[in-house]
């Protein structure tokens, strides 16, 4: 018995999986470039967050505002252009359906809800870390490179632009 492989007609093409959130033939974005894009976006948000924190003495109000700022950054940019500066630099974009367009506002909000975990007092950092690990593991183990957050959002997918 031989193992199914990429040339086996019975092996589905991971780029054409129904509900994958991308048009047929789109190439899923790998975990490495996705993490790199998040780092670039994180640096942008860090600069804004530090400036905001200096004005608000880095208190609880700052923590909550910063969490919502991060959330809004990804939701607004992904729904408007399908990409962020970090994703653009790494040649990635987020799709929300088989038409290849950006995700809906609702889909993007669900996809990025984990970014709000950092605002939870005391346990926020641990909750956010658990979410990041879950997302990384599920992205890496999926043939379409969709994380748990993509599936919860109705099938959004990060693909190569």
Number of domains: 1
Instruction: Identify low-pLDDT runs.
Output: 12-18
Cα(first) to Cα(last) distance is 38 Å
The averaged pLDDT comes out at 88
Describe the model:
With 161 residues, the chain is mainly alpha-helical. It has one domain (27-160). Helices cover 52% and strands 5% of the residues. The chain has helices at 31-56, 60-81, 85-89, 105-112, 124-141, 148-152, and strands at residues 92-95, 157-160. α1 (31-56) packs across α2 and α2 (60-81) crosses α4. The termini are far apart. Mean pLDDT is 88; it is low at 12-18.
Task: Please outline what is shown here.
The protein is mainly alpha-helical and 161 residues long.
What are the SSEs and their pairings?
Elements: H1 31-56, H2 60-81, H3 85-89, E1 92-95, H4 105-112, H5 124-141, H6 148-152, E2 157-160
Antiparallel strand pairs: 1-2
Helix pairs in contact: 1-2, 2-4
Highlighted features:
161 residues; mainly alpha; two-stranded antiparallel ribbon; 6 helices; globular
